[in-house]
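We keep the chain:
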Amino acid sequence: QDHKFSLIPDDLKAAKESWNDIHKDAEFISKDIAFKQE
């Protein structure tokens, strides 16, 4: 249990980093779509 609990901060950090990557991709895609619509 203690060992599992110690892994949580690393999991949160990894999740935050992957979320940042997804957010950047979504921003890039939305700009690309907006450019094509004009």
User: Anything to note?
Assistant: The mean pLDDT is 83. The first helix runs from residue 2 to 37. The chain has one helix and no strands.
